[in-house]
Specification:
The protein has 210 residues and is mostly helical. 71% of the residues lie in helices and 0% in strands. The protein starts with a helix and ends in a 15-residue tail after the last helix. Keywords: Membrane, Transmembrane, Transmembrane helix.
Length: 210
Amino acid sequence: MRIWEVENIVPSEIHEVPNSDGMTPRELFTKNHEKLKVEAENSMKGTATSCTVVGALIVTIMFTASFTVPGGNNSTNADARMFLVEKLFLIFIISDTLSLVFSTTSVILFLGILTSRYAEDDFLKDLPTKMFIGLFTLFLSIATMMITFSAALIIMLEEKYLWVVIPCIFVACIPVASFIWLLFPLLIETFVSTYGPGIFDKRVKRWVKL
């Protein structure tokens, strides 16, 4: 929606001046972009729906993992006390918590997109901002989820089984990396189109002098 950028360099006195058909610039813009607006709405809904499902799955997994101690529940009290001070266990807890927070945040934002009014003004800042933050927090939740998985795997198999742990972590990261690779261009495009430079240089002067 670049009409607002045009409005910034056009004198306010002619913003509501109708054309030969009796339509103001805003009305003409709305009429000519009805199809584009519908396509953008459907695209955002589709992306938000898919990401909501992924985020909800991560929330479920991380919430369950927070109550599951890696290594089983057969340790003695002494072993448990030693286990609590292990750095890997701290990494497991911290990354699990962060993943839960990030995924919950992304789900809330994507639900906000799905329940939006999809008015013209919403496409200017509100919806792109929600989409960008939602995707960004979803990526963070995936990254911290993989850290949680890696820490849990190392804790359970111990150092002597690192030759098994490393390939398992690598294989598990392949589908995750594929998902991020597919959505990362959308994240960058959303950020640039919303917060990047406009279609006009900032030094452009008004073309009509008052």
